[in-house]
Design goal:
Length: about 550
C-alpha cells in the first residue's frame, strides 16, 4: 500500500455548537475554535473533522443544510472560515469538512423550488411519489421516527426524508444533482480543506421504490464519479459514514485500487449493546467477548485492500466512559483504558471533543431538558405506543445524542468557560472538577495519556503498520492483543472488569519496555499480574 498522510493521522472531531463560544450568544462558533487551536496543537492531532458549519435552520443541528457555500450565522462568516483554515494550516492541522449530501434542508433553495410544482425544473432534485391507495407510497421509516414520506398538500405527492421532514432526500439519480454536489465540493477543495467526512454516504444509492436504502446498487458508481470529478486530484482524507458495512463492503469503499474513499467509519463495535434487530434504544449489556471478536475481525480483515477508522465516540454516541467504563469510581482509569486499547490499533483514530479529558454523559430527568430531535421524536412515538416514561428516559440517558453534545468543559468558571451567555444546552455540572484546565495542570491526567498515545503513532511504525493478533487464552473480561512489525512485538492489555483477573506475561527485559500504563507498576510487576479495575497497559515483548 502506498503510504498516505491520513494513515498516520489522528483526527479530532469538533462539534462547533458546543466547542467554544466567542461572542456570548451561548452557541459555539468559528472564532471560538480558532481560539482553541493552540490547545489542539498541544494535544498533537493532525486534522479536525468539523461537524457542519454551513447555513442551516438547525432542525438537526446543521445536518440540515440550506446553503452549502455560506456559513451558519451563529457560527460566523466565510472570512472566519478562511481564517480557521489558515490558522489551522499554520499548526499543521487540516480541516475536514462534514459533507451532508444525502439530503438538504427543506429551506434549501433547490427544495423551495422543487416543492413549487410538479413541472418545476428542480422537481426531480428530490424524491417525489404519488400516494398509494390514498396513503404513503410504502413503509419506509425515518431514522427520526415515523414514516419517511411527507405529504405535500399543494402538489398532492409525497417526498422522501430518511431523517426529519425538514431533511428531504436528494435524488442522486439526477445527473444535475450530482453536478451541483461536485461543484460545491470543488469550491471547498479550492479553499484548501483537508478532506471530507461523508454523512450517511451509504444511503445515496437508495432505491426507494424497492425499500432499499443502504448500500444500493449505484452507490459505488457515484463514489467513483465523485472521486474523479472532485477530490481525486487532491491529497485529502475522505471518510465515509458507513452504517452496516461489513469488511467486504468496507473494501469496496476503501480499496485504493478502486478510487473511492480513503477509509470507512463503521459502527459494528458500537452497536453491540443493542438488542439484535431492534433499535438503538433497546438496550442490552455489552459482552466483552463479542467486542473482542468484532474488533479483531476488523483489525485483520482489510489487509492492504482497505482502511478503517478507530473510535469510541462521536456526536451521535453516548460518552464511552459512561457507556462501558465506570464514570464515578474509576472515571480516570477507564477513560485511559479505552484510550490505550484503541490508540495502539491499526487504523486512523478519531477523538471526539471532550473525550481527551474523560467527559461523561449528562443524565436528564424529563424530556423538556432534551434538544436532540432524534430523542424527542422517539420519546413521543414510544409514549404513544404504550412505553413507560421512565423506560424511555432510561434509554435516552443511555443512548441519547445530547450526552455527547453538552458544552466542552474548559475550566471551572461559570458555564465551564464555554460561554459568557446562556449555553444552548446545559453544561454538565461536574465541570468544576472535570475540565481542560485541571487536566493540563496534572501530568497524570487523561489529556496527557492521549497526548502520549498520539505521539506514539507519529514515532512508531509498528502502531501504524503492525499486524494485529488477538490473544485468546486470557480471562474473558481482558482484551489483549499483539502488534507485530519487523521483528518487534508489542502487547496491549485492557481489563474491562472491576473484579479480579490474573494474567501471566513473559518477563520484560528492562523498564523501558513498559510503553504506557494507567496504574503505576514497576517493570518487574508485569510478569505475574493481578489486574486492577480497568487496568490497561502496553509493553514490548
Ligand atoms: C449522520 C450524522 C447525524 C445526523 C444524520 C443525518 O448520522 O452523524 O448527526 O443526524 O446523519 O444527517
Amino acid at each position: 500500500m502506498e503510504m498516505k498522510w491520513w494513515q498516520t493521522a489522528v483526527v479530532y472531531q469538533v462539534y462547533p455548537r458546543s466547542f467554544q463560544d466567542s461572542d456570548g450568544d451561548g452557541i459555539g462558533d468559528l472564532k471560538g475554535i480558532i481560539r482553541r487551536l493552540d490547545y489542539l496543537e498541544k494535544l498533537g492531532i493532525t486534522a479536525i473533522w468539523l461537524s457542519p458549519v454551513y447555513q442551516s435552520p438547525n432542525d438537526d443541528n446543521g445536518y440540515d443544510i440550506s446553503d452549502y457555500q455560506n456559513i451558519m450565522t451563529e457560527f460566523g462568516t466565510m472570512d472566519d472560515m478562511d481564517e480557521l483554515i489558515k490558522q489551522a494550516d499554520q499548526r499543521n492541522i487540516k480541516i475536514i469538512m462534514d459533507l451532508v449530501v444525502n439530503h438538504t434542508s427543506d429551506e434549501h433553495k433547490w427544495f423551495i423550488e422543487s416543492r413549487k410544482s410538479k413541472d418545476n425544473p428542480y422537481r426531480d432534485y428530490y424524491i417525489w411519489r404519488d400516494p398509494v391507495n390514498g396513503d404513503v407510497p410504502n413503509s419506509l421509516r425515518s431514522t427520526f421516527s415515523g414514516s419517511a414520506w411527507e405529504y405535500d398538500e399543494e402538489s398532492r405527492q409525497y417526498y422522501l426524508h430518511l431523517f426529519s421532514k425538514k431533511q428531504p432526500d436528494l435524488n442522486w439519480e439526477n445527473k444535475r444533482v450530482r453536478q451541483e454536489v461536485w461543484d460545491m465540493m470543488n469550491f471547498w477543495l479550492e479553499k484548501g480543506v483537508g478532506g471530507f467526512r461523508m454523512d450517511v454516504i451509504d444511503l445515496i444509492g437508495k432505491i426507494p421504490d424497492e425499500e432499499v436504502t443502504g448500500n444500493g446498487p449505484k452507490l459505488h458508481d457515484y463514489l467513483q464519479e465523485m472521486n474523479r470529478e472532485t477530490f481525486g486530484r487532491y491529497d485529502v482524507l475522505t471518510v465515509g459514514e458507513t452504517w452496516g458495512a461489513t469488511p467486504e463492503i468496507a473494501k469496496l469503499y476503501s480499496d485504493p485500487k478502486r478510487n473511492e474513499l480513503s477509509m470507512v467509519f463503521q459502527f459494528e463495535h458500537v452497536c453491540l449493546d443493542q438488542q439484535q434487530g431492534k433499535e438503538k434504544w433497546d438496550l442490552k449489556p455489552l459482552d466483552v467477548n463479542e467486542l473482542k471478536q468484532v474488533i479483531s475481525k476488523w483489525q485483520t480483515a482489510l489487509g492492504d485492500e482497505g482502511w478503517n477508522s478507530l473510535f469510541w465516540n462521536n456526536h451521535d454516541l453516548p460518552r464511552i466512559v459512561s457507556r462501558w467504563g465506570n464514570d464515578t469510581t474509576y472515571r480516570t482509569e477507564s477513560a485511559k483504558m479505552f484510550a490505550i486499547l484503541l490508540h495502539l490499533m491499526k487504523g486512523t483514530p478519531y477523538i471526539y471533543q471532550g473525550e481527551e479529558i474523560g467527559m461523561i454523559n449528562c443524565p436528564i430527568n424529563d424530556i423538556s431538558e432534551v434538544e436532540d430531535i432524534e430523542s424527542v421524536n422517539m420519546y413521543h412515538e414510544r409514549l404513544a405506543n404504550g412505553y413507560k416514561k421512565e423506560e424511555i428516559i432510561a434509554s435516552i440517558n443511555a443512548k441519547g445524542r445530547d450526552n455527547a453534545r453538552t458544552p466542552m468543559q474548559w475550566d471551572d468558571t461559570e458555564n465551564a468557560g464555554f460561554t459568557t451567555g446562556t449555553p444552548w444546552l446545559h453544561v454538565n455540572p461536574n465541570y468544576h472538577e472535570l475540565n481542560v484546565k485541571a487536566n493540563l495542570e496534572d501530568p497524570n491526567s487523561i489529556f496527557f495519556c492521549y497526548q502520549t498515545l498520539i505521539q506514539f503513532r507519529k514515532e512508531n511504525p509498528i502502531v501504524v503498520w503492525g499486524d494485529f493478533e488477538l490473544v485468546t487464552d486470557v480471562p474473558e473480561q481482558v482484551f489483549m492483543y499483539l502488534r507485530h512489525y519487523e521483528g518487534q512485538t508489542w502487547a496491549v492489555v485492557a481489563n474491562f472488569g472491576e473484579g479480579k483477573a490474573s494474567l501471566q506475561l513473559p518477563s520484560l527485559g528492562q523498564s523501558d519496555d513498559v510503553i504506557i500504563s494507567n496504574y503505576a507498576r514497576s517493570a518487574a510487576d508485569f510478569h505475574q499480574l493481578d489486574l486492577k479495575p480497568y487496568e490497561a497497559f502496553a509493553v514490548k515483548l
